[in-house]
Amino acid sequence: MNIDFTHVMSERTDKQLADIVTIKRDEYQPEALLAAEKELEKRNLSAKEFYSDEEVEKIKGFTVTQIAELKLPWHYKILTVALPILIFTVYILLTRRLAISYFFRLAPLPLVLLAQYMIHRDIKARGYIRMAVDFKKWVVYTFYIYIAIVLMLAGLFYVLMMLDYKW
């Protein structure tokens, strides 16, 4: 279901538009907020005509376009890299005493991918477009980091085997 928010917002009064971009901002989808802000600009109005500067800054915070351009904070980048390790560690600790095949030891992999997909979808749905793109990049970087770690460990194991290292 695709809604034309531009048409819907063009039918609103000036005061209703000001309320949408300030007081009622949490009740609307990002696309609707963007359409309301554009309609206010088209009418050469701002929410400051209906509210004081302090009220607008306190209520509004960020505009939809500013929210869409926010970058992914560094601590979320670290969490993106550490999340798979955390999930695999917990899974291995829980299933360590069970005699399960190697195939089932990889069971958390789809869970990690599903969790990362759901996080990406939620970030994007909340209007953080650039943050969602950054998150997706860091998921790919994480994949490359883990491949590099596995290759380095395999190379180390190969070198130790060639040197006839006694375990």
Explain this structure.
The protein is mostly helical. The chain is 71% helix and 0% strand. The protein has nine helices and no strands. Helix 8 runs antiparallel to helix 9. It is elongated. It starts with a helix and ends in a 5-residue tail after the last helix. The mean pLDDT is 82.
Concise overview:
With 167 residues, the chain is mainly alpha-helical.
Shape: elongated
Number of strands: 0
| Major beta-sheet overview | none
Q: What's the helix count?
A: 9
Strand content: under 5%
H/E element sequence:
HHHHHHHHH
Poorly predicted sequence stretches spanning 5 or more consecutive residues: none
Query: What value does the average pLDDT take?
Result: 82
Alpha carbon gyration radius:
25 Å
Structural class by SSE content? mainly alpha
- The share of residues in helices is over 70%
Topology:
Layout: H1 5-10, H2 14-21, H3 30-42, H4 53-60, H5 64-68, H6 74-95, H7 102-105, H8 108-125, H9 129-162
Helix pairs in contact: 2-3, 6-8, 6-9, 8-9
Which descriptors would you attach to this protein?
167 residues, single chain, 9 helices, mainly alpha
